[in-house]
């Protein structure tokens, strides 16, 4: 087997046949007064929950949901920005034995939220409309119309920022009958959560996870808390509805989670305010997307002067160049990058260093197996490029209500087809080369967008780069490099073309892009990742290709 493209890291820990709620109750019994969640605002506001607070408040809401007709296995949507109330609502859904459906609130229009609610076929919804008068008005009109709530038994507000006829979590006061409601015993192998994929390709999918998978995730005590030692504090402002942003992992591990509204961290210029909060809360680690690390680099002198240093910054979601390791030793001891997907969770991680090999994704986390297969689904010899397959007890159960997708996504013996392209070297190293849908077919040649992105990210003037396919009448597709420059540096498209040709060859038989488009910033999805669908539309419009 040594010559085959297969790697594994057996899980040394015994599986816990427990539900998320079982583990949470154990943590609460161990440390009831542990401040487990801290919500901060730019203006200095601070709210927090202890384990006991969370257990007590979630229990009341769970009993209310059950009294209103929610049964084990029912689907309950939860949507809104990060908040203390969101966490309470999440645990209440799980305590009721229901499935918590994480929905990204990607639009300011209630009509768009309603489409998502209908597509998920939920029996109830916990929703935060924020302070949007139009959104609240449309929401009130819908839930107040006879017949409009046929499929939604319960519509409950997480927070009531504006007057509304709908009840919020704070409005719930149990009557005597509701207080006596029995909470069900939850089976570990039942579905707990449904995450949606980022939608970066325009097609979000519904990913089911069991209680067993979440409670036994081997990386729980490591990557999900950014490499924190037990009971450390982790700053993470990723959306709660995103897998890497879920507060479940830090809570089940006993690590205090410090968070803000994701939109605040995504705004350019707020990194110094975030760093102030990290210092004030004495965080030991942080989970930050690449754009936040770029912001740190742009303000590194100011941040270094504070004298505060994290133990670890963890990142992922997209590739970054080794130049970001400049933060190491200045504002963090270590910088680690994870490799994984919504469907597989975190498969491997690597500690970033200046001399890191491009594409190397590091060591597998315990409990994971990886292999690389060819076009005929056969396992390849080491050193050959193919599709990466992943197997673990911690991966998704299935895609919800998607029979054809499940058939296409799983091979025999529960191997999941990641859609990523990579190589396992003869030395046993796993290298990620890109995604199968990252292949740009220029004439008879195949150009991997990730290879071009990796090369251009080494240019000192480049802050961010995304390579996309654009249509071409003769060659079928052409290669377009969209880039954002660092504030203090400049360059021309001619200069970039020359640099690319040195590394990538020409734009005929080599991998150099035929188009270079400068952007001030890239459009983002709600989770902070680049919206590649919208970026491609913008690029095509600028290239006068919008009619294709």
Shape: globular
* Mean pLDDT score: 88
Please tell me the total number of domains: 3
Distance between the termini: 48 Å
Report the count of strand segments: 26
Fold and architecture overview:
This protein has 548 residues and is α/β, with parallel strands linked by helices. The protein has 3 domains: 6-11 and 264-433, ANL, N-terminal domain (Rossmann fold), CATH 3.40.50.12780; 21-186, Rossmann fold (3-Layer(aba) Sandwich); 443-542, ANL, C-terminal domain (GMP Synthetase, Chain A, domain 3, 2-Layer Sandwich). Helices cover 27% and strands 26% of the residues. Helix 2 packs across helix 3. The radius of gyration is 24 Å and the shape is globular. The chain starts with 5 loop residues before the first strand and ends in a 6-residue tail after the last helix. The model has no long low-confidence stretch (mean pLDDT 88).
């Amino acid at each position: 087997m040594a010559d085959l493209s297969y790697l594994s890291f057996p899980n040394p820990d015994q599986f816990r046949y427990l539900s998320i709620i079982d583990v949470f109750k154990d943590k609460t019994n161990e440390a009831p007064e542990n401040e487990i969640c801290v919500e901060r605002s730019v203006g200095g506001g601070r709210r927090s929950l202890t384990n006991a607070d969370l257990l007590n408040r979630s229990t009341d809401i769970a009993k209310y949901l059950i009294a209103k007709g929610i049964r084990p296995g029912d689907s309950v949507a939860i949507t809104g920005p990060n908040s203390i109330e969101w966490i309470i609502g999440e645990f209440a859904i799980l305590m009721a034995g229901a499935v918590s459906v994480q929905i990204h609130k990607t639009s300011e229009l209630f009509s768009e939220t309603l489409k998502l609610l209908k597509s998920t076929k939920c029996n109830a919804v916990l929703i935060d409309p924020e302070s949007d008068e139009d959104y609240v008005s449309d929401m009130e009109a819908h839930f107040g119309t006879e017949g409009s709530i046929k499929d939604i038994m319960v519509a409950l507000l997480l927070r009531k920022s504006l007057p509304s006829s709908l009840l919020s979590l704070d409005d719930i006061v149990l009557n005597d009958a509701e207080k006596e409601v029995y909470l069900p015993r939850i089976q570990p192998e039942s579905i707990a959560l449904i995450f949606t994929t980022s939608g970066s390709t325009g097609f979000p999918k519904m990913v089911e996870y069991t209680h067993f998978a979440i409670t036994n995730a081997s990386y729980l005590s490591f990557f999900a808390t950014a490499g924190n030692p037990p009971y450390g504090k982790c700053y993470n402002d990723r959306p709660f509805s995103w897998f890497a942003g879920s507060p479940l992992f830090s809570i089940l591990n006993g690590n205090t989670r410090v968070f803000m509204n994701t939109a605040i961290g995504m705004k350019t210029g707020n990194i110094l305010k975030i760093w102030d909060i990290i210092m004030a809360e004495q965080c030991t680690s942080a989970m930050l997307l690449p754009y936040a690390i770029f912001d740190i680099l742009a303000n590194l002198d100011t941040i270094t002067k504070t004298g505060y240093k994290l133990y670890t910054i963890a990142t992922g979601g997209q590739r970054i160049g080794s130049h970001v390791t400049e933060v190491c030793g200045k504002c963090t001891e270590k910088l680690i990058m994870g490799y994984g997907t919504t469907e597989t969770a975190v498969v491997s991680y690597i500690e970033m260093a200046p001399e890191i090999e491009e594409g190397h994704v590091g060591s597998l986390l315990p409990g994971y197996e990886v292999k690389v297969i060819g076009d005929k689904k056969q396992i390849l010899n080491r050193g050959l490029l193919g599709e990466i397959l992943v197997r673990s007890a911690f991966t998704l159960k299935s895609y919800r209500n998607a029979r054809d997708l499940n058939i296409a996504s799983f091979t025999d013996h529960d191997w999941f087809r990641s859609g990523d392209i990579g190589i396992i070297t003869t030395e046993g190293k796993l290298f990620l080369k890109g995604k199968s849908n990252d292949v740009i077919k220029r004439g008879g040649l195949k150009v991997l967008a990730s290879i071009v992105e990796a090369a251009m990210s080494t240019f000192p003037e480049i802050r961010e780069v995304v390579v996309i396919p654009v249509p071409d009448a003769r060659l079928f597709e052409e290669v377009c490099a969209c880039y954002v420059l660092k504030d203090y540096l400049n360059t021309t498209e001619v200069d970039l073309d020359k640099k690319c040709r040195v590394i990538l060859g020409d734009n005929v038989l080599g991998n150099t892009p035929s188009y270079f488009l400068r952007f001030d910033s890239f459009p983002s999805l709600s989770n902070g990742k680049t919206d590649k669908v919208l970026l491609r539309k913008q690029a095509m419009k600028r290239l006068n290709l919008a009619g294709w």
